[in-house]
Structures are given as structure tokens and as C-alpha cells.
Structure prediction request, 162 residues.
Amino acid sequence: MDGQTMKNEGESCAGLAPCGEERPGDGLGKGEAGGASAHEMEPMLDNWPIKMEEIPDRASYFDGADLLVAADCAAYAYADFHAGFMAGKITMIGCPKHGPVGLEEKLETIIRENEVASLTVARMDEPCCGRLEVAARKALHGSGKEIPWQAVAISVDGRILD
Prediction:
């Protein structure tokens, strides 16, 4: 069969469902199963990489940018995260509990070495995420710059808390 493997009828494709049958996720992004069409959703990611430990300390996209520092789980809790938080911002994500050591120093360097216009912290309303806000506050102070900033807490049920 020219190096191809034939599957027996009913054999699993990638362990999900018998080949040829609908699998979980089929139809998603096509306006079915409660999802919006991929053509209706506008991606908001303006930079890469986005993981805090991988993002460079200096990059041209930081200059004049509104910076979003987000707990990685916040995007899963808040359904409209792209439009509600990421639109028009340079995004950095990470976990203050399981993420990189030196988060405060990383943020301080980015703010000090670039012309960041503003900072938004999007975090979960959980004790571990409080570290993200504290690190941002200390980084701003340590950078010697005064830029507008805000912190937004998101509940596990997806509400923005005051």
C-alpha cells in the first residue's frame, strides 16, 4: 500500500472515535456547537512570544504600547478576553504561582528599558494571582517611571470584580 497503513472499519482515529465518524470538536469554529465562526472572531495577538519567561526585555513593539500582563488562566475564565483585554495591547501571560522566578525584575526591566505607555494586570480573584498584581506594583516603582496602570480581578465564574 505504498507505505500507508490501512485502518480497519471502526478503528479509532487518534483515539477519539471510529474513523469517518464525527469526533469531539468537529464543527467548532464553524458556527456550530455554540462557537462563533472563525470568520466572525478577530484575533487580538500583536506580539510573539507571549509567555513571560520567553518575551524579550527589549522589543520595538513595547515602545508606546499599552502592556497587558495577564494570569494565563484569566483568558479561560473570562469569555471575551481577546476583545475585552487584549485589543490594542501587547500581551504577556504567565502564572505567578507556577511561572518564572523573577517576575518582578522582568517587568521592571521591560518598563525601564522601553517606552511603555500603560499597564493593565488581568488576574484571577485567587490568592496566588495576587502575586501578579504585587509584582507589577513593585516593578512600576522600581522602574522609576510613572505610567497609568490598573489591575482587574476576574472571578472563577467569569465576572469582572470591582
